């Protein structure tokens, strides 16, 4: 597994990158994005799904609208991988250290 | 817009039941005892035999496979073991593995570990920072973007922070 691959692939498409950059300026709904871009609403939804799967954006409901924003947790896939890596490493370290303390 | 705000570092903390000097030694000299075999960076398929953090500033941080092959991860930037059993210690490692899972000497992200006495044990705090540099390097190698990760990150992090 290459940890940045998902994010890099997701941003490799120019329209997706454009959407991502627009969301970086402020959270927007699908229809707001579609209005400002030369692509259909279903196409915008599809791009948003890719960005979401790559951990780059998140969404939430506001009334009947779904509003998208960039993921505040950090660098998407890369961060997820490192978060998990250090969780696992520190858990293993703690297990070993505590075992010694109990001996 | 020229806000430069970096993504939040990864922060973790665990409490262990041994005093700081032992916690520091287990984390460094005895890393092979606990390091997960699955946490291998090496391109060879050989399982990890040892994880080595050479005990000095400038020392290497690397894994050695069962077949004897070595894969460097980075280097030691600060080496401050607790001077007494129950005093504070600090370790600063340079993580130089890029987004392609390869050692890249021109990439430097920092992993800082602080060992602080807590009761009869130790609070171990980890911070992995400057991770945005991995994005820059990863993209640089792939040449995937016309405008670059730096710009993306800049706008991204303005709103993420």
Describe the protein's architecture and organization.
The complex is a heterodimer of chains A (103) and B (161). In chain A, a hairpin with a 2-residue loop joins β2 (57-62) and β3 (65-70). Chain A has a single domain (5-102), classed as Winged helix-like DNA-binding domain superfamily/Winged helix DNA-binding domain (Arc Repressor Mutant, subunit A, Orthogonal Bundle). Chain A has helices at 5-10, 14-25, 30-36, 41-53, 76-102; strands at residues 28-29, 57-62, 65-70. Chain A has 103 residues and is an alpha+beta fold. Chain A has a three-stranded antiparallel β-sheet with strand order 1-3-2. Chain B is an alpha+beta fold. Chain B has two domains: 10-130, START domain (Alpha-D-Glucose-1,6-Bisphosphate, Chain A, domain 4, 2-Layer Sandwich); 131-161, no CATH class. Chain B contains four helices and seven strands, in the order βααββββββαα. Chain B has helices at residues 20-27, 31-34, 132-142, 149-160; strands at 10-16, 48-53, 60-65, 70-80, 89-95, 109-118, 121-129. In chain B, a hairpin with an 8-residue loop joins β4 (70-80) and β5. Chain B is globular, with a radius of gyration of 18 Å. Chain B starts with 9 loop residues before the first strand and ends with a helix. Chain A binds chain B through residues 2-5, 7-8, 11-12, 17, 20-21, 24-26, 69-75, 78-79, 82-83, 85-98, 100-102, and chain B through 7-8, 10, 12, 14-18, 22-23, 26-27, 30, 33-36, 39, 99-101, 121-122, 124, 126, 128, 131-132, 134-135, 138-139, 142, 144-145, 147, 152-153, 155-156, 158-160.
